[in-house]
Amino acid sequence: MASEGKESKPDSQPAATQFTCKDLAASATHQPTDKKLFENLSGAGKVIGVLTSGGDAQGMNAAVRAVVRMGIYVGAKMYFVYEGYQGMVDGGNNIVEVTWECVSSILQVGGTVIGSARCQAFRTREGRLQAAYNLIQKGITNLCVIGGDGSLTGANLFREEWSGLLEELAKAGKIEKEAVKKYAYLNIVGMVGSIDNDFCGTDMTIGTDSALHRIIEVVDAIMTTAQSHQRTFVLEVMGRHCGYLALVSALACGADWVFIPEYPPEEGWEKLLCTKLLENRANKKRLNIIIVAEGAIDIHNKPITSEKVKDLVVKQLGYDTRVTILGHVQRGGTPSAFDRILASRMGVDAVLALLEATADTPACVVSLSGNQSVRLPLMECVHMTQEVQKAMDNCQFAEAVKLRGRSFENNLNTYKLLSQKKPDSELPKSNFNVAIMNVGAPAAGMNAAVRSAVRMGISEGHKMFAVNNGFEGFSKGQIKEITWGGVGGWTGQGGSILGTKRTLPAKYLETIAEQMRIHNINALLVIGGFEGYQGCIQLAEARPQHQEFCIPICIVPTTISNNIPGTDITLGSDTGLNAIMETCDRIKQSASGTKRRVFIIETMGGYCGYLASMGGLAAGADVAYIFEEEFDIRELQANVEHLTEKMKTSIQRGLVLRNENCNENYTTDFIYQLYSEEGKGIFDCRKNVLGHMQQGGAPSPFDRNFGTKISAKAVLWLSEKLKESYRKVVGKVFANTDDSVCLLGMRTRKLIFQPVTELKSETDFEHRIPKEQWWLKLRPLMKILAKYKISYDVSDSDNQS
């Protein structure tokens, strides 16, 4: 979840007491600008080098691909710098001009194909002098650096010294004096590639989401064997100076305990840990998961290692305990859909930043703020990142957590609330009954959201009731109380354990109202899709006839289609997107042997083209047909001709995505037959309908985490509304205002409660989609990276510092 932040004046230097890490991105306010199209920006005469440095991270190749293709697209000359700064110092064959085809087939590859190396020589002025000489030989005066804070700091120093280095080279007779004037300044743009998510100014760094995928895959596998033998597993994850991976993976798998450097356990933690493990076993929990960040420390700044934790559990409790150190597994594997899209967006914006840069432009870093790409002063972000480490070194741990940003703080607070139940004697008594239900098609993350809601509700003192099988089950009285332990282990399970149906409540209003009276339901949480949203509107509209519906109602939007108004992203859509991307990767791989083959792939989404568009961007598709953007036979013909030209290059395959309801006449079969006929003798075609596999599978780390946090926030809102609407005189809850039936959605960087009655005007009910959708502006990226000539609005890509 994106953090919420404070505003800062342009060009002001934030102090540690004013800003948190993620607040830097929040301060990147979007100034109103005239619409600006990138085709007005020419790269002619520009020479751009791209390098990866420091530790590798999944998604770096996607960033490299985007930088190279965008650079070539605008007419710039592009160079790889192999082996990071070491290659820059060594020169020769380490600095090579590249073509469009050079970055084909690297989107889905982990690590970095251009190599990364630690370089002591670049730390010296002599090394940087040699690097400057090598760049001048190729005419490179623009660098895109993908790495961590150390790599970006080195790049900024290089930029600051550039003119002095050139003068020194001229004095030594290594370059002509004219070259000093011609190549007078060096422009630097950074992208943060780091699995630790430890850099200030961006909500997520390239590689973090993929690393979480690797961790959760291992945790899910370990949980099955641990359950079989009643074992305790201690998992050590990366994060030498940042506990983000450990904290989010603990939240995503419901770990019993987590050790992170920003929040050391209190004095006497050994006894508290053992007590908690004992209680869990007493409650018939067959396994224990403890997650340790490699940089975990105690309050005295002394290390807490996975072996130390294991020895404690074995010695004090005698449990069968095993240690698993994930190590470099976390850096490996294919990038997730999120990382591919993030890296592609950042790569394109990095080139735009270099095109716009002047001699006076400071080094900037391309960052993610909510769903916007922004640029921030590089060194400002680096200084803030260093402030966090200083706070930890000085044992100012509360300050360190605060500096990490609100998102990190919210993760930590949510984990603390949900991982340990307070004794019944310490729980407040609200005397309110809260019902939870799933409505609509199943989506990954539903169970994580239910678990979070149940546990948060119990912590608030409510009695929690689970409704099985949606509104239909509600009408039949399929309602039962659900306990803290009753939702144990739900986080990682796909589908809907409660059961869900698409049925709307309109024809069951009488019986649902009766069941609400019988069970004295005082608040309702609906975790569901478009039907859930419509159902809540129907309940609100039926209030005059049924006072039982005059209670606080909240909907958590949950569907793979991402087609609900009031939110930029719905729970479940990330998992669906990854399912599409993984299938496309396999399909593309199958085409690598046969050559000259085009695949037509149909995705779900109803009338919403989110899955097809974002899936196309993540998988490197040539085109994606969606309902929101009309197309005709001429465009289909142009796409066939484009693929025909592509087959003349070394990239002899094509990938076409089609949203299931994009056009009633241009069906998947029609497009397949058209492509087959028009491409006869040049390429052959295959079609795939992905179907319900997009709804299945274990939830992604993002959906587990998002579901956990958004549901917890929804229950806290219901608690507040229950207190506001309780009428002491009659001893009952009465909520009849518009703002008592709300949808909780993610808007840019914030979770916002919006009355469903207000959202009706933003909804196209006929096609079950929002009237405006933010992701449509990203569609040109896919075509640009597939070499189509297209207009792209870059108004949001201005320097936002």
Automatic annotation (TrEMBL):
Beta-D-fructose 2,6-bisphosphate binds at residues 502, 559-563, 597, 604-606, 660, 686, 692-695, 768. Residues 1-420 are annotated as: N-terminal catalytic PFK domain 1. Pfam families: PFK (PF00365). Keywords: Acetylation, Allosteric enzyme, ATP-binding, Coiled coil, Cytoplasm, Glycolysis, Glycoprotein, Kinase, Magnesium, Metal-binding, Nucleotide-binding, Phosphoprotein, Transferase. Its cofactor is Mg(2+). Mg(2+) binds at residue 149. Its EC number is 2.7.1.11. Catalyzes the phosphorylation of D-fructose 6-phosphate to fructose 1,6-bisphosphate by ATP, the first committing step of glycolysis. This is ATP-dependent 6-phosphofructokinase. It comes from Sarcophilus harrisii.
